[in-house]
Amino acid sequence: MSRFRRIPARIAWVLIVFVPFVATGVAAMEQYSLSTGQTVYVPVYSSLLHGNLNELGQPERVLLSSMLSVRSTDPVYPMIIKSVEYYNSVGQLLRQYLPGPVVLQPLATADFFVENREKHGGTGANFMVVWHSDQPINQPIMETVQVYHWGTQAQAFASRGQVVHVQKPATSP
Predict the structure, then answer these.
(1) 51-104 tens-digit pLDDT
(2) 134 within some domain
(3) CB neighbour class for 25 (10 Å; exposed up to 12, middle 13-18, buried from 19)
């Protein structure tokens, strides 16, 4: 006689079907945790390589415009955008967008634009956004929308930001 019991088919079915949903729900809850501040890396594609290689062995390059959208998702408390910086493919700072901190009200959005004639960002350009709040709030959504438009046609795609640093909440003495 085996020391292990056989799991009834009905229980096994419940484990197979419902456990992944519970795990997904837990991951979703972790994704929406509260924060008092972050540094967020947001990819920008100010140019794309395409087509065939030219006589120098280089692909064709198309320039894109890009809009960074910083969206407050907290319905109650504001957030403060401390800085928005634009870097090129080799990590060189090209532009600082804010002269000082900007308050973003609950559920508001701030946009920052890179023209399609901007040639210095390259395929690996990015924004670094630093924000904070005086109390824990829902994490904002940060993404770029890249657009190429010609004639009556357009191409557009979005890139989502990635948190690279979390501000630790201040501790009381």
Answers:
(1) 888 999 989 888 899 999 999 999 999 999 999 999 999 999 999 999 999 999
(2) yes
(3) exposed
**Residues facing 54 on adjacent strands:** none
Q: Which residues contact 47 (CB under 8 A, 6 or more apart)?
A: 61, 62, 63, 64, 119, 121, 122, 123
Q: Are 138 and 29 in contact (CB under 8 A)?
A: no
Rounded Cα distance between 170 and 160, Å, is 28
Evaluate whether residue 47 is within a structural domain: yes
d(CA 145, CA 152): 19
Q: What is the CATH number of the domain that holds 80?
A: 2.60.290
Range of the domain at 44: 34-166
- How many angstroms separate the CA atoms of 14 and 92, rounded? 53
**Whether the model pTM is above 0.90:** no
44 in Cβ contact with 127 (< 8 Å): yes
**CA-to-CA distance for 24 and 107, rounded, in angstroms?**
26
Q: Is residue 118 part of a domain?
A: yes
In a domain, 122, yes or no: yes
Q: What would the two tokens of residue 38 be?
A: 């972050």
Q: How many domains does the chain have?
A: 1
Contact 73, 105 (CB under 8 A): no
Do strands 59-63 and 47-53 pair parallel, antiparallel, or not at all (unpaired)? antiparallel
